Amino acid sequence: MSIKILGGLAKGQTLLVPKGDLIRPTSVMLRRKIFDARQDMSGHKFYDLCAGTGAMALEALSRGADSATLVEPNSKVFSLTKKNAENISKSSERLGQIEVVKSNAEKWLERFLATYQTLDDEEKESIVLFLDPPYLLHDIYNKCLDLISKVDFIGELWIESDEQKGIKKKVLDELFPGSKSYSQGTSFILIVR
To answer: pTM of whole model > 0.85?
Structure first.
């Protein structure tokens, strides 16, 4: 199975997907909805905390993001994530920087947020954190959201979940009133600014 980059400099580039249920990539329709609304990602640094294939971060990079960081803890998936990032970087010399990190989301986020606090406001505002753990792993959502709540986070937080298996939209709406969301079936991405 493979999926493709939907738009931008790397449009049509194929991404590898591991066999089985090691990961659950963001659906093409949901990815299309959010990136149709956000065609130009110029000036942003995109951080995918549970990268899997890397489709979301690489899509952002294809659409002009200055950089993309893909964080993946699973060794088998990490090698595939890295290969996808390498293939995308070969597709266009004009793409921003790509970094692939083998780490779990919470540990990486804790280190990142310590650095984040030293940035100026303009740099902070350019940050997009994408949180999309396996839906059933509520612990990852809770720990990451708790870490983010402890700093003055002024970038964008994109949270993907599912009404049936993940953190419910109603719960996230209560935590982040006034947020925008995009839905496909029971899955959704909430954008917190």
So the answer is: yes
